[in-house]
Write a structure and sequence with these properties.
alpha/beta, Lambda Exonuclease, Chain A, 5-stranded mixed beta sheet, 25 strands
């Protein structure tokens, strides 16, 4: 296959276009593409004739033979056909013009300069590469380098010199890619892009993309994102739509622009409904003025300003026309004059084209007065695209005005379909001065303003207050912030549209069928249910306690008090014995007393009964099973009822015990927080938790002796600055940016850094630059770890490594990093230099955050038990008790013993246990001596009787 400039230029725009041209696929037509081709041919013919007229006939040639190129006597040749071969690739081109500069002396060959004609006033890299293609063919034919070329372009016949030798490398790579493309028997993957609007195969490719539901239909998605989705098995827009998951926006991100979600765009297309994120705000406080401008980007010339003032039938349309570039200032003045006559004008436009127009007009044609109405309107102009982007998702493949307005029902009557077609129409008017083209442009511009008004009115409707459920708003509009997040692989409650279907579904539940259906036909179940209904609760009291008598009246202090009424209270408890536990029921009997002097009734001042019907033993054991053993509360209730015959342990008992215990230990919990935040070392980490379908976060604060868990509804770290404002110790954490704002010495977890290094090395094993950098960091860290293993976290042995750190950073600063990963890693090391090796300067500071990560594990296990069904108050109760439990473990204290003791100060309880152990250690020798004496003494029969 021969590569020509047509194929070479098509490959810049789209590989599919190059393939279709090479296979002679018939074009389906494109007005703009046809006009561009005709303009290029006309410009080439005109410029060729001009150059030939300026060159003597005996020094010019038309289509000279390539064989006589080296000995050619001409100074200018046009339409020179060139053929050559580069790396088994046949290249062919018709060089539009070649300028020959005679030899400057013996040994200096003549120079040949290829010339290409481009009708546009602005040049891009693609045009320069086409010239470089001609230069490559010419250099191969001559057998020597052709390092320069010329491009003649624009209305003023401007000449730009191009250094083609600088483009040779890039050009050869593209030639290799084109050769590989044309050698393949299968066409390249079809990808729609921006060039489609000016391509002759636009209709053909779009039809195929629609049939395939291709991802490239989504105009805002780039190749990298499409490749990532294909790696996940997502190839169509419909498949992508099922990946959207509504997420709760963190507080720290509420003031920032929402990220654009292609999956939500796909969902809107699939459901054919508008989807909104948050509350898109469009405030039009005044008279709306809808602005649309037509221009020639090639010349930086704006020739038509369209203004639509007001809405509905009373709207007024203004069309300001410029015949030439000299009239541009005139229509700008007319535009400002119209604005000055409007009461509180609000300029509304769509996209950045009008934004650039307003800025350039002020720079080129004068600044309106500072206190003028027009200047205020220009400064406060509203770009509807910025209002809708990432906030309003219309069910259209792109966010263009024409697609959105078309979906809303607006229809264009003009024959102009796009802004590119208007460029061609304007050129036709300039050439023929045809009034028809001018009327077409006026109609097209006016309808654009009307379409803009339709979109603005639709956005204004979204701002109106609505009441809807499940995220639905009037008109089929979906609010994604109110959508429920679905979990496709979990149990969930079905919602039925028809009440009859819901009633039928309820009749299929297991409990319902067993208690209401099977019991009527199964004799065994019927008898069991009858026995259960007849069964009475009988409590066997283990101990009865008579409470003391009241001595005096608390009101008048008289001793003339008599028993008024007898009461009793039963307390259910567990009794802990040396080798087991058993249920224990205590009955308290007491009286209410009557004062014969003042007539008051009262209870004794010293009460021997508890306010709760649950004893301290059952409370301790319930918390032990739910917190330390991590049993679900419903299983704790069932376990108490089955193991200890506690018929009083009905559903919900354990939950109430948990709530009361959390209140009891709230002060202990707050004391732990205060102690941690005023210590010399603090480890911090956080993990996610689901609370009734909403994401929250649990923060872990820990040191070597204490642990505290704190619940927050977001990962926003602002509250950390409040709680740690007086912390002056060393903070050990991961690389989350919220920790950086805390003013104290910090140690970043090096384990996190090592994991990131290892992950990149696994994914990119041949990234030699990153591997060299990682090896240097590893060689720096390894001796430090060896010193810690030998001497512990003591500064006197670790301080010597600070010199190695300085040398390592000096080497980094001298390295010239090229790869993206190496540059990022180097920047990360430089950014955190003062926080990576803090452990070398402070005693007892670890180099990793494993203490906090270890503390996260118990909550992760408890989170699995909770399963997202707890409330915010419930999770806070859990965290208070889990903090007590883990602190007991860190201090070497048994959690169950602490609960049974009735103590609320863990440090005091731990100290008492230590004192008891020391006393036992002192008493142990005496006990050994007495044991030895008793062994040597004669055996004396026991005459006592056990009571």
């Amino acid at each position: 296959m021969t590569i020509t400039p047509e194929l070479f230029g098509a490959f810049f725009k789209c590989p599919t276009k190059c393939w279709l041209r090479a296979t002679r696929e018939p074009a389906m037509g494109n007005v703009y593409a046809e006009w561009v081709n005709s303009q290029n041919e006309a410009y080439r013919a005109t410029e060729t004739e001009r150059l030939l007229s300026e060159t003597p006939k005996d020094e010019s040639a038309v289509s000279p033979p390539a064989e006589t190129l080296k000995t050619a006597p001409w100074r200018l040749a046009v339409s020179l056909t060139g053929r050559t071969q580069v790396k088994d690739c046949d290249l062919e081109t018709q060089i539009q013009a070649v300028e020959r500069i005679p030899s400057a002396g013996r040994g200096k060959p003549a120079q040949f300069i290829p010339i290409r004609f481009i009708f546009t006033n602005k040049l891009g890299r693609d045009e320069k590469l086409l010239l470089a293609f001609d230069a490559l063919v010419l250099s191969q034919m001559l057998g020597r380098d052709v390092g320069h070329g010329k491009i003649i372009h624009g209305d003023d016949h401007a000449t730009q010199k191009v250094k083609t030798s600088a483009l040779a490398g890039d050009m050869r790579k593209r030639i290799e890619k084109i050769a590989a493309l044309l050698a393949s028997t299968t066409p390249p993957d079809l990808v729609l892009n921006r060039h489609c609007a000016e391509c002759e195969f636009q209709a053909r490719c779009r039809k195929i993309a629609l049939e395939k539901d291709d991802l490239s239909l989504l105009a805002g998605m780039n190749e990298k994102e499409r490749k990532s989705l294909r790696g996940k098995g997502i190839f169509t827009v419909t498949q992508l739509s099922y990946t959207f998951r509504p997420r709760r926006r963190p507080k720290r991100m509420r003031d920032k622009r929402e990220k654009y979600h292609h999956s939500l765009k796909a969902l809107a297309i699939r459901e054919k409904k508008i989807h909104i994120v948050g509350s898109p705000e469009l405030k039009i406080e005044g008279t709306p003025v809808y602005l649309d401008v037509e221009g020639l980007p090639d010349r930086d010339f704006y020739y038509l300003i369209g203004l639509r003032i007001g809405n509905g039938e009373s709207a007024v349309q203004h069309s300001l026309w410029a015949d030439s570039a000299g009239d541009e200032g005139k229509i700008w003045g007319e535009f400002l004059a119209i604005l000055e006559k409007i009461k509180k004008p609000v300029l509304i436009h769509y996209g950045s084209y009008e934004t650039k127009f307003l800025k350039r007009m002020i720079e080129e044609h004068g600044h309106p007065p500072e206190d003028s109405v027009s200047l205020k309107a220009i400064k406060s102009a509203i770009n509807l695209l910025s209002v809708t982007f990432a906030r309003v998702y219309f069910p259209t493949f792109s966010n263009g005005l024409k697609e959105i307005a078309g979906w809303l029902g607006f229809r264009w009557t003009s024959t102009i379909l796009t802004g590119m077609h208007s460029i061609a129409c304007r050129h036709v008017w300039e050439t023929k001065n045809a009034s028809l083209e001018k009327r077409i442009l006026f109609a097209y511009n006016a309808e654009d303003c009307e379409a803009l008004a339709a979109v603005a009115n639709e956005l204004n409707e979204l701002n109106q207050p609505h009441s809807g459920a499940e995220g639905a708003l009037p008109g089929g509009i979906i609010d994604t912030t109110k959508l429920k997040r679905e979990h496709p692989f979990g149990f969930k409650r079905n919602n039925f549209v028809l009440p009859e279907l819901e009633a039928i579904n309820k009749a299929a539940y297991w409990d319902y069928q067993r208690d209401r259906v099977f019991v009527k036909s199964n004799v065994v179940l019927k008898r069991s249910a009858h026995r259960a209904s007849k069964q009475k609760r009988i409590f066997a009291v283990n101990k009865t306690i008579e409470c003391g008598r009241a001595k005096s009246c608390p009101k008048c202090h008289s001793t003339k008090v008599v028993k008024h009424q007898e009461y009793s209270k039963t307390v259910f408890d567990l009794k802990f014995m040396r080798n087991g536990i058993k249920s224990w029921i205590t009955k308290y009997q007491f009286h209410r007393y009557f004062c014969q002097c003042c007539g008051a009734t009262f209870y004794p001042k010293e009460r021997c009964w508890t306010s709760s019907k649950h004893g301290s033993g059952i409370i301790a054991y319930t918390l032990y099973m739910s917190i330390e053993l991590r049993l679900p509360l419903i299983h704790v209730d069932n376990s108490l009822g089955k193991l200890f015959c506690c018929h009083w342990a009905y559903l919900g008992t354990s939950n109430r015990i948990k709530k009361e215990a959390a209140k009891t230990y709230k002060e202990t919990y707050e004391a732990l927080i205060k102690s941690l935040c005023s210590g010399r070392l603090l480890h911090v980490d956080e993990t996610k938790v689901s609370v009734r379908g909403k994401d929250g976060f649990v923060w872990v604060f820990a040191n070597m002796d204490e642990v505290v868990y704190v619940y927050r509804d977001s990962r926003d770290g602002d509250w950390l600055q409040t709680i740690l404002k007086d912390f002056k110790g060393v903070l050990v954490s991961d690389f989350y940016a919220a920790y950086d704002a805390i003013s104290c010495p910090q140690q970043k977890c090096l384990i996190h850094l090592i994991r990131d290094i290892n992950d990149h090395l696994f994914k990119h094993p041949y990234d030699q630059e990153f591997k060299t950098l990682a090896s240097g960091f590893t060689a720096l860290l390894k001796p430090m770890v060896e010193s810690i293993d030998s001497h512990g976290l003591r500064t006197r042995f670790l301080r010597k490594h600070l010199a190695s750190v300085d040398r390592f950073y000096r080497r980094i600063s001298q390295m010239t990093l090229q790869g993206e990963a190496a540059v990022k890693f180097g920047d990360r090391l430089q950014k955190n230099r003062e926080k990576l090796f803090t452990f070398l300067r402070f005693d007892g500071v670890p180099w990793n955050n494993n203490n906090a990560e270890h503390a996260v594990k118990p909550f992760a296990a408890l989170r699995h038990v909770i399963g997202g069904v707890t409330s915010e108050h419930g999770i806070q109760d859990y965290l208070i008790l889990l903090s007590i439990c883990q602190t007991c473990k860190y201090m070497g204290v048994d959690f169950l013993d602490f609960l049974r003791s009735g103590e609320t100060d863990i440090h005091a309880f731990a100290a008492s246990r230590q004192r008891r152990k020391r006393r036992r250690g002192h008493d142990q020798p005496h006990a050994a001596k007495s044991t030895a004496a008793s062994a040597s003494a004669p055996e004396v029969p026991d005459t006592q009787t056990d009571v």
